[in-house]
């Protein structure tokens, strides 16, 4: 049976921090807009800031649907599944905000990601939890985690900030979403701090 939690602490925090994969779900306000569901990985890219707040590093290499949706309406759900150990699915429903590289908060927030920061860090998505719940996960298969993929970090790690900004300028659905909503500010802002 599912359970509601008042905060992200203890076993809930440990569970989140132990998972190598999580998912984000967002949607625009328009009824005919594209719903977005994205897998997120790379060790060190998600942190629990406090008992009601999480943050993850938004990298280049894909569109910017999540950023566009949280800019428009803030609604976001994060989900983790236990692929090993006891069955569990955990969801955090909340309000998200995109903190861009020129935001005064960037310099403090990016320190949480010092081991994975690089030119392709284009935003930090901060999620303020409104509802924290789990469910059984009995239908989730056991899957064995092998290792991190290194291609993303290696590819973007070879780029300078200027090269990454140029990369973003050339990509579709970075400055605007599939539905035409504002996404990442282009040209990509310079970093503060």
Q: What attributes does this structure have?
A:
193 residues; alpha+beta; Pnp Oxidase, Chain A; eight-stranded antiparallel sheet; 20% helix
The CATH architecture designation is Roll
Largest sheet: 8 strands, antiparallel
Strands, total number? 8
**Rounded average pLDDT:** 95
Our count of helices gives 5
Order of helices and strands: EHEEEEHEEHEHH
Tell me what the structure shows.
This protein is of the alpha+beta class and 193 residues long. The chain has one domain: Roll (Pnp Oxidase, Chain A), CATH 2.30.110.10. It has 5 helices and 8 strands; from the N terminus they run E-H-E-E-E-E-H-E-E-H-E-H-H. It has helices at 10-18, 65-72, 106-110, 151-157, 161-170; strands at residues 3-5, 22-26, 36-40, 46-50, 53-59, 75-81, 89-100, 121-135. Strands 1, 2, 3, 4, 5, 6, 7 and 8 form an 8-stranded antiparallel beta sheet that branches. The relative contact order is 0.22.
Q: What would a concise description of this structure say?
A:
With 193 residues, this protein is of the alpha+beta class. Helix content is 20%, strand content 31%.
Write the layout of secondary structure elements.
Layout: E1 3-5, H1 10-18, E2 22-26, E3 36-40, E4 46-50, E5 53-59, H2 65-72, E6 75-81, E7 89-100, H3 106-110, E8 121-135, H4 151-157, H5 161-170
Antiparallel strand pairs: 1-8, 2-3, 2-6, 4-5, 5-8, 6-7, 7-8
């Amino acid at each position: 049976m599912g359970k509601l939690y008042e905060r992200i602490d203890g076993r809930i925090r440990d569970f989140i921090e132990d998972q190598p994969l999580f998912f984000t779900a967002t949607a625009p306000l328009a009824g005919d807009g594209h719903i977005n569901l994205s897998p997120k990985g790379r060790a060190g890219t998600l942190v629990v800031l406090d008992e009601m707040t999480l943050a993850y590093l938004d990298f280049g290499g894909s569109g910017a649907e999540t950023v566009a949706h949280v800019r428009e309406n803030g609604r976001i759900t994060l989900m983790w599944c236990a692929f090993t150990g006891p069955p569990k699915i955990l969801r955090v429903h909340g309000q998200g905000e995109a903190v861009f590289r020129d935001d005064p908060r960037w310099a403090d927030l990016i320190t949480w990601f010092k081991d994975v920061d690089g030119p392709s860090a284009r935003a930090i998505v901060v999620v303020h939890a409104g509802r924290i719940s789990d469910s059984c996960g009995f239908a989730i298969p056991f899957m064995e985690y092998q290792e991190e993929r290194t291609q993303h970090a290696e590819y973007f790690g070879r780029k300078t900030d200027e090269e990454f900004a140029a990369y973003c300028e050339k990509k579709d659905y970075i400055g605007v979403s599939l539905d035409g909503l504002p996404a990442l500010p282009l040209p990509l802002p310079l970093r503060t701090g």
